[in-house]
Amino acid sequence: MSLTKAAVIKFSHEIWERPSLKHAVYVGTLSLLITLLAQGTLDVFYAGGSLKSQPESYEYGADLRTAIMLVLVAPLLETLISQAGVIGLLGLIRVNGKLVVWLSAIGFAYMHFWTTPLSADVLIQMLPIIPTGYLLGALYYKLLKREGWRSGFKYTMIAHATHNGIVFGLICILEFFPD
Fold it and tell me: Which of 1, 17, 52, 79 is least enclosed by beta carbons within 10 angstroms?
């Protein structure tokens, strides 16, 4: 096994064994890379569809309101509803852990289109978001089982805020350097 592969495997195990701010940032960054890859793939194979990146009501710009919404409010509310709410409620009725995380991921993806009526296009648009929901849900679930809801909530929210913070940084770059 190569040194790099061994280091990646060791770091991956550390995330689940000893959560820290560094690990939450890693999960948030990884989730963004997976989302971008999935969105790019979807754009290539579904170019003929009527996809929109977000519902019409979303207007992002490089301003303080957008930063607060993306980095504070969205991670707080989405972690509360998609991870703590869904995983917590389904855990009470003893639903299988893997199923709970997948349902949480699907709920997380749908939250990004809640103002849009459910359709085939919306379901297809949800696909790139599901992996991020799965990573956040798995992080929350693992920490919930081992350390309790506070640790799960804190590190999941940090991972989500990292993901959205990088997105905000990209929005700023695109707004200030449009071409």
Answer: 1
Supply the pTM of this predicted model.
0.76
Residue with tokens 């699907």: 106
Q: Rounded to an integer, what distance in angstroms lies between the CA atom of residue 84 and that of residue 5?
A: 33
Q: At what angle do helices 130-147 and 97-111 cross, to 10 degrees?
A: 130
Consecutive H or E run containing 40: helix 21-45
Distance CA 173, CA 150 (A): 34
Rounded to whole angstroms, the Cα distance separating 73 from 65 reads: 10
140-157 pLDDT, tens digit each: 998 888 888 888 899 999
| CA gap 135, 96 in Å, rounded | 17
Look-up of token digits 């993306």 = 70
Q: Are 31 and 109 in contact (CB under 8 A)?
A: no
Give CB contacts under 8 A, 24+ apart, made by 45-53.
46/124, 49/121, 49/124, 50/121, 51/121, 51/124, 51/125, 52/125
